Amino acid sequence: MADDGCVIGDRWGVTTSETLRAYPCDDFVVSPTLQAWRGVRIEVPAATVWPWVAQVRLAPYSYDWIDNLGHRSPRLLEGLPEPQVGEPFTTAGGRKLGRIVSVDPGKQLTSTIMGAYSPSAAGQVAEPGRQTR
Question: Which regions of the chain does DSSP assign to beta strands (E)?
Fold first, then answer.
């Protein structure tokens, strides 16, 4: 652990100010043991990103050969309805792994999976005239 309390690899693509903001998952985990931050800046409006954030309910969109038993995560939007609190969050290898605990359509989706809480945001950090995070 570094002098500032960070662990090597605990943040990729995020600024310090983004890690200091309040997020919906803060309501579920008051004193986290570990915080892992991942961020991507893209040149499209949050409304374009949101359907993809919401679609994470279907598959891990990660290393499919590990996390999804080699099954490919969908490459096209499935036209899902807006996510709802209590719905299953994602699957891997055909197993439902988590559930949605907080959602603000078009902005953020917070889930719990295997005991961890994970916020996914589209535009929560973005502001008019800026890129989407």
Answer: 11-12, 37-38, 91-92, 95-96, 98-104, 108-113, 116-121
